[in-house]
Design goal:
Blueprint lengths: L9 H5 L3 H11 L2 H26 L3 H11 L1 H22 L2
Length: 95
């Protein structure tokens, strides 16, 4: 099974979209684990923004919007992947 196949029919595989399942996990998992993982995620985004600033300058939002507009499918797939990844991280610590 290919990676892309995970997202072909979200309703059958996830019982909802990766986003909706992520929200279910976030609102029902251990609060301390969720807080820690969200802090880790925000720190990672902050570092990536700093790295991006070095390459495109101060107007990160414009660069992100331009990239998103020209890579809609890839951005959508990556967004779903991040929901699944973060959900998996939270769930693996909740066992």
């Amino acid at each position: 099974m290919s990676y892309a196949a995970l997202f072909e029919d979200e309703e059958d595989i996830f019982g909802g979209s990766p986003r909706s399942k992520f929200m279910d996990v976030v609102f029902n998992a251990n609060n301390d684990i969720v807080r820690q993982e969200l802090e880790n995620f925000i720190e990672k985004v902050a570092v990536m923004e700093l790295m991006l600033e070095e390459h495109v300058g101060e107007d990160i939002d414009k660069a992100v919007d331009t990239y998103r507009a020209t890579h809609l499918d890839d951005a959508s797939t990556k967004t779903k992947s991040l929901y699944v990844e973060l959900m998996g991280t939270v769930l693996s610590q909740s066992e």
